[in-house]
């Protein structure tokens, strides 16, 4: 009898372990904090364990194209469209999750530059001793946009010698540790950093919103759990989380 009980208990434990599988989530940097905050609810509702990894949008594209396994990815629509054409994600699973604009950041306690107009923003950039932003070569969407914006504003040559480029992660960290005077990054990636101050968003005329879209991996080991996560990210539970991080739900 005792042996039977042990056998049944072992079988139950194995079944439970099989059900509580790991769900691998790949996310672009700006969405990492949102995903991490919603993970406990996801794990409670599904019984699965979430494993979250992040990179730039370009970095994730290379990893997925290289064959990295994953269950759900949260990246930019353009990247996911390309991955869908290469059969790397389930095309019918895509859903817009959020969007975020670019903001200006300075060290806590430093005076806030005037960025109320495009001309004022240009003066702030030209006056700053150093300007930090994501290295466009790393594939970060904000860095790519800003490089084009500097060209459009006719100040690329002036910015280049004082640019402090970050391969990935939080640009605001370069401001906090004194490596750069002024930084430009998505607002959701400025707010988590201590020792800095968000001056505000770029002027409306030159603001650039990055939209983030989620999709299930074509070869996902846990496709149902992946779809459950996407439902959570696009549902009411995510609204307050997005707002607290300077993001908003995607336009309808």
Q: What does this molecule look like?
A:
The protein has 252 residues and is an alpha/beta fold. It has two domains: 2-98 and 211-244, Periplasmic binding protein-like II (D-Maltodextrin-Binding Protein, domain 2); 102-206, 3-Layer(aba) Sandwich (D-Maltodextrin-Binding Protein, domain 2), CATH 3.40.190. Helix content is 42%, strand content 22%. It has a five-stranded mixed beta sheet with strand order 2-1-3-10-4. The protein is elongated. The N and C termini lie far apart (61 Å). Mean pLDDT is 90; it is low at 4-18.
What is this structure's SSE topology?
Layout: H1 2-19, E1 22-28, H2 29-46, E2 49-55, H3 57-65, E3 72-75, H4 77-85, E4 95-100, E5 102-107, H5 118-127, E6 131-134, H6 141-153, H7 156-159, E7 163-166, H8 172-176, E8 182-186, E9 196-201, E10 210-216, H9 223-233, H10 236-244
